[in-house]
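sorry for the late reply, my laptop died twice this morning and i had to redo everyting from scratch. anyway the thing you sent over, i finally got around to it. pasting the sequence first so we're on the same page, its 360 residues, then the predicted structure underneath. double check i copied it right bc i was rushing
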Amino acid sequence: MKFVERAGLMMMRQIDPERAHGLAIKALKSGIAPLPGRLPDMPRLKCEFAGLKLSNPLGLAAGFDKNAEVIAPLLNVGFGFIEVGAATPRPQEGNPKPRLFRLPYDQGVINRFGFNNQGMSVIGARLADRQVHVETGRRKGIVGLNLGANKDSDDRAGDFARVLAHCGADIDFATVNVSSPNTEKLRDLQGAEALSALLNGVLETRDTLSKRIPIFLKIAPDLSDAEIADIVAVAFDTGVDAIIATNTTLDRDGLHGRHKSQAGGLSGVPLFEKSTRVLARIAHETGGAIPLMGVGGVSSAEDAFAKIQAGASAVQLYSGLVYNGLSLVKDIRCGLDQILGYNGFSNISEAVGSDIEKWL
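ok and here's the structure:
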C-alpha cells in the first residue's frame, strides 16, 4: 500500500462511514483516487464463469457503486468484473441515518442501508453510457447489476423482472438479491415456492432481451442445511446460471466495540467462516453442476483461495476495501497467482472445489 493510500484511509476512518464512502466515490469520479496501476498478464487467473470470460476471478460485490457512477475507474483497478446496484424500479432513500458502522477491531462492517438508490432509470442510463472499445464495438469490462425491490412495492417479485427488463440490454449479468436483511420480509422470498415463482419471472424476462445474459441468485448465510437443500433444488429446477454465497449475516457472535449490536447486515472478516461453510455446503449439494461465487470476508489472497477451494469459481469482495484500500485488488491478484504456482496449479479452475471437505 502506497503512503498516499494509507494516509487517505486513515483520514477516512476519522469521519462518518457513509460520508467517507461518498467521498471515495467522488475521488474515483474526479480521478484523484490512488489506483494500483496496470498489472501484468496472469494466464493462471484467466477463467470462465457462467459463460463470462474473465481476466481474473476477483470481482467487486454490489453495494460499493450503488448507482453505477464509477464503472470505468473501478474496472481500471484490476477487477475481473464488477457488480453495481442494487437497483429498484423507483428511487428510494433507504433507511434512516446513521446506517453504516465500522467494527475496526473485528475488521467488520454493519449496514442497514435498505436498498437506497437512484432507481432503474438513472442507473440504466449510466449503464447504457458505458465506454465502448473502438476496435470491437463492445462495452469495456464485465459489468453486472444487482436487482432489488422497492420497500413499499405491492409486487416485490415483479420488481426484479421490471429492473431487468429496463436495464438488461446494457449489462453482462444480473443478480437476484433476495438475501438482504435490510428490507423487511425480503428474505421470505428465499422460500422454495416464492423463490421459484420469482426466478421464473426473471428468467422469462431475460429470454425477451436482445441477448442472453446469465442470471445469478444471491443467498443469505443464515440458512439451515434443509433451507440450503431447498434453494439448490429450486436453482436446478429453474435453471438459474449461478449462485452467489453469501450476503451479509445477522449473527453477532464474538464481535467487539460499541457498534457490535447495531441492527443490519454484518460483513467483513467476521463473515468469512460462516459464508465459506455455506458455500462449501452448496458445492457439496450441487456436485459442481452449478457455478458458485464466493463472497464474505475476503481480505487477502489466502481468503480468496480458500473460497475457491471450498467450491467457488469466482470471488467477490467489498468490505475488505474499507480497511485495505483499492491496492487490495492488486495484492490478491498477485498473491493468488503465487499460491497457484506454489501448489502446482496451471490455472485457477483446477483449484475449484479442491478442499470442500474442510468446510463441511
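The first strand starts at residue 47 and ends at 49.
thats about all i looked at so far, will dig more tmrw
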